[in-house]
Amino acid sequence: MAERSLLFVPGSRPERFGKALAAGADITCIDLEDSVAPTGKAAARAAALSFIAEQGAPDHLWLRINPVRSAVGLADLLAVLDSPAGPRTLMLPKLSDPSDLDFLAEVLGDRPLCLVPLIETAAGLRQAASIARAPRVTAMLFGAVDLSAELGCGLEWEPLLFARSTLVTAAAEGGVGLFDVPSIDVADSDGLRGSTARAKALGFTGRACIHPSQVAVVNELFTPTEAEIARANRVVDAFAQAGGGVALLDGKLIEMPVVRAARRVLAAAGR
């Protein structure tokens, strides 16, 4: 099944790591950046890497380091490289220049680490297509809060629609996943449901969460329904029966783009 939900847990709260891992999210990401005070960076880094090693560095346990163009970010990176069982995926905040990914590729060498850039600056948005195509990049995350502050626009859907659409196009071109920004209003479950449905309709493949209570809604909305799965199977079958040519299903034309969409539904459902 596709990666639908990504739950952040503060690196400064190691007592929450296990609870976050058990919350039902497809991905759990320990955060060493925004949620950790400058004086607590070293302790959070040590706690995160220790926990990841204890868990056997599973694929679904990620680590968000600090920006690689900062001293603390470089310290995070070196600690990851020195760890005998470090994370298999790093999230990279404030990623604005594809050359940063070239630098990381040189530093990582043959180490099998995947990278997930966080696009949250105007420069990063402009370079999103190049970033999505870079080696090791498997997904991107939209950082709407930082971007809206830089642009001077609201956090509502409409002011950031261009940015979201740009990222959807870039992720599709690069063949990578795309997570939408977490809802910062933990108590607004209706708002979470509505905005998540819009993100899915736009082309996002998942959404980040900042509280375990958000995970179930995100998983539900990014999981195809039985009706959607049945329809996708019928589309694929009709196309196959037509020998790969144009087919009709319920009076509607079935061509390859429709089949590709149906196959995405089945892939998201793990079928």
Notes on the protein architecture:
Helices cover 46% and strands 16% of the residues. An eight-stranded parallel barrel has the order 1-2-3-4-5-6-7-8, surrounded by four helices. Strands 9-10 form a two-stranded antiparallel sheet. By secondary structure, the protein is an alpha/beta fold.
Short characterization:
With 271 residues, this protein is of the alpha/beta class. It is 46% helix and 16% strand. It has 12 helices and 10 strands.
Q: What gyration radius follows from the Cα positions, in whole Å?
A: 20 Å
- Shape, please? globular
Decide which structural class fits the backbone. alpha/beta
Strand content: 15-25%
Count every helix, treating DSSP H or I runs of 4 or more residues as helices.
12
Poorly predicted sequence stretches spanning 5 or more consecutive residues: none
